[in-house]
Amino acid sequence: MSQIQALRFTQTIEHAGGFRASVRVRDLPPYELDEPKDLGGDDAAPCPMDYLLSAVGGCLLSSLALCLQKKRVEAPLAMDLEGEVARNEEGLLRVVRIRARIRVGAAEADRRKVEGCYEIFKKYCIVSASVAQGIPLETELVFGK
User: Helix H segments across 1-145?
Assistant: First the structure.
């Protein structure tokens, strides 16, 4: 178990016209944001919802991969994510649900280990556990590619 007690993450986001923005994280190359055309953007880059799904999915995948590594299970992992947006009581659009379908290409002999990891891995994912406090997060484990 990690001995880290606290972490801080920072980034700078600069408006780039319209609904576009440029995001700088540490010393990494900047990446772009835009909104889809349905929301007034040009759909020239992923939107914040896309990045929210990536953050949740990336954290889930990393947490599951760590558990499988500790159990000495080598298997391809992939995930399909879906975010649902709907209007709330005030008529404002909000994320109302995130679904993650986790695909594991594990050998039959490793299925029990994979299922064991699936039962516990979510509580170790910083991002998804935090997001799930306000947005329902459903996960499904599927064997095969």
Answer: 48-70, 111-120, 126-131
With tokens 């540490």, the residue in question is 26
Tens-digit pLDDT profile for residues 9-37:
999 999 999 999 999 999 999 999 999 99
Distance, in Å, from the CA atom of 107 to the CA atom of 72, rounded to the nearest integer, reads 12
The answer for residues whose C-beta is within 8 angstroms of residue 62's C-beta and 6 or more apart is 125
Buried b (16+ CB within 10 A) or exposed e, 99-135: ebebbbebeeebeebbeebbeebbebbebbbebbeeb
- Enumerate residues 6+ apart whose C-beta is below 8 A from 34: 18, 19, 20, 21, 41, 42, 43, 44, 45, 46, 47
Q: Are 103 and 79 in contact (CB under 8 A)?
A: yes
Q: Residues 122-141: what's their mean pLDDT?
A: 92
